[in-house]
Amino acid sequence: MIVTIDGPSGVGKSTVTKLLAARLGFEHLDTGAMYRAVALAGLRAGADLTDRAAVEAVLGGLEVLLPAGRVLLNGDDVTAAVRAPEVSQGASKVAAVPAVRRFLAAQQRATAAGRDMVCEGRDQGTFVFPCAEHKFYLVADPLVRAERRAAELSAKGHHTTAAAQMREQEERDRRDAERDTAPMHPARDALVIDTSLRALDAVVALLESVVRR
Ligand code: DC
Predict the structure, then answer these.
(1) Which range of residues forms the domain containing residue 13?
(2) Residue 4's pLDDT band (boundaries 50, 70, 90)?
(3) For residues 162 and 102, what is the distance between their CA atoms, to the nearest angstrom?
(4) Digit-coded pLDDT (tens) for 60-74
(5) Which of 40, 87, 92 to mutate to test the pocket of ligand 1 (most atoms within 8 A of CB)?
(6) Which of 78, 95, 145, 204 counts the highest number of beta carbons within 10 A?
(7) 179 CA distance to ligand 1 middle (Å)
(8) Quick check: 38 and 64 in contact, CB under 8 A?
(9) 192 falls in which pLDDT band (50, 70, 90)?
C-alpha cells in the first residue's frame, strides 16, 4: 500500500511521515532528499542550477540512494550536507527541470513497487503515485512554518531567523508551485490538513485513523 504526504516545507511533513510509517509498520521515502542530492551534485560540479542543460549533464552517472535514513550520493554520505540552506534553494531549482523529475520519479516508483510505503514530497499524490490508496496534503500558516524551519535549522547548526525563513520559503513555494512539470498542489482526492494549531502527534493519529478505517 502507498500513502502519500505532500505539502510545502515547514508543515511537519518529515516528522509526520516517519511517525506514521512507524505506527503502520511501513517504510518511508523522503523524496525531497533525492532532489537535494541532485542539487548538491550540481553545486559540487559548479553548475548553474537554473540552466537546464547544465543540470541534465549532472544527471549522467549520478546515483542517489537512501539507505535507512541516510543520503548517499555516488557512495558519499551527504546526509548532513543536503540540509544546508543553499541546497534547499538549489533543490527547488533542479526540481523545475523535467529530466530531473523523470529520473527521480522513475526511481521513486521502482523503490516503492510491491512495498508498503509512506512517500513524502510535493508531487507524490498528483504525479508519482496517482493511484495511491491514501493521499494527504499538509498546510500551515506561513509564520508557523517559518518558525518551525528556523528552529529545525538552528538545531542543526544553521543559524537563521523566522524572518529569513519567511523570505526563503516564499521564494521556494513560488518556484515549486509555478513550475510547468508536476507543480506542488493537492491531488483532487487528497485530504488537506492544516497543522498550524495541531500537535504533530495529533496529526499522525488522525492520518493513522484514516488509513486504518
Ligand atoms: O521537502 P524538501 O524541503 O526536502 O524538498 C526540497 C525541494 O525539492 C523542494 O523545494 C522542492 C523539491 N521537491 C519536489 O519538487 N518534489 C518532491 N517530490 C520533493 C521535493
Answers:
(1) 2-208
(2) very high
(3) 34
(4) 989 999 998 899 999
(5) 92
(6) 95
(7) 12
(8) yes
(9) very high
Task: Give residue 149's region: left, alpha or beta (phi > 0; psi -120 to 50).
Answer: alpha
CATH code for the domain in which residue 28 is found = 3.40.50.300
Task: For residue 166, give the DSSP letter.
Answer: H
Neighbours of 111 (CB within 10 A): 16
Residue 50 has pLDDT above 90, yes or no: yes
Domain membership of residue 77 (yes or no) is: yes
For residue 72 the three cell numbers come to 548517499
- Atom 10 of ligand 1 has which residue's CA nearest to it? 92
- What is the C-alpha to C-alpha distance for residues 174 and 6, in angstroms, rounded to an integer? 16
Give the distance (Å) from ligand 1 centre to CA of residue 207: 21
Question: Domain total for the chain?
Answer: 1
Does residue 213 form part of some domain? no
pLDDT for the residue 68? 87
- Its pTM stands at 0.96
Q: Are 5 and 136 in contact (CB under 8 A)?
A: yes
Instruction: Answer whether residue 147 is part of any domain.
Output: yes
Place of cell 503515485: 129
Report the nearest-CA residue for atom 12 of ligand 1: 92
